[in-house]
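dumping this here before i forget
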Amino acid sequence: MKENKPTILMTYELPGDWQGETLKAYNVILKEDQDKGITSNLLEHLPDAAGIFCLLDDPIPAGILHSAPNLKVVSNMAVGVDNIDLAACTELGIPVGHTPGVLTDGTADLAVALLLSVCRRLPEASEDARQGKWSSWNPTGWLGTDLKNATVGIVGLGKIGYAVAQRLSGFQPRIIFNSKNPKPEAAHALNARQVSLEELLRCSDYVCIHTALNAETQGLIDKKAFQLMKESAILINAARGPVVVTDDLVTALESRQILAAGLDVTDPEPLPPDHPLFKLDNCLITPHIGSATHHTRRSMAKIALQNLTAGLADLPLPHCANPAVYQRSRIKDF
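structure:
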């Protein structure tokens, strides 16, 4: 007799030692192509799917959700869930899992690494050394900018923004931040000042983006924002690509309206190899590696699997991005 196991659709196969024995109790269908989202062979299994395990760049729109009448849970291996139609999930009674907190330190470290690399022109200096352009010690060669006594503006003082401010404090800059809600305790703890976005853009030598992506923040850093910034300003984005209007950023960098940028996220993502940003010597781009440490990625996978198995068992998710779903879903009381 054929064993009746719940069907799970996975857009990415986790390493065996990350998943352990967790998935052996399920009928796991792995995606066979490299496209984003529920594509190819996964589509034919949608009607039977009880769970979806996806990544941050896998779109899960309402159409997919409505094609999966037996779906109990969507587990996103990411802290953000802007790739998922959260409202549709809530309406359909489907909890969405995410992985908050665990990637704070890794992403904050990467943001600081980007800032330091750009302000001290490390990629350019390293490449010149490789190409034999380092012939002698040059008093005016590869001059960068200082952090001490500079003004760092942090857009979005959530966990990651706060962690970045903590790390940068040792360099003794002035720290200002913009946040949707008043945060006097954070301001006191960081010896920072909360300001309007306009003031932050005007005053900052370094503008660090750490806000979530939503309707209010999409396109937040646009042509008008760049016009407010100093010509000597450096932009760092380790949040989400669409917070910055890419074409406006290209123009600002090409015209030297701002000095430079360091990006761990882009829009689109990934950028095509022939994109103008890759041709600029004042733009450093990394391939969305903020959480790319052994410990962080393994921890994210563990939490995502815990969310998945809880949802399949009709239990509350340890980390649910749409808790309102429990007011209307059929899951057991908890």
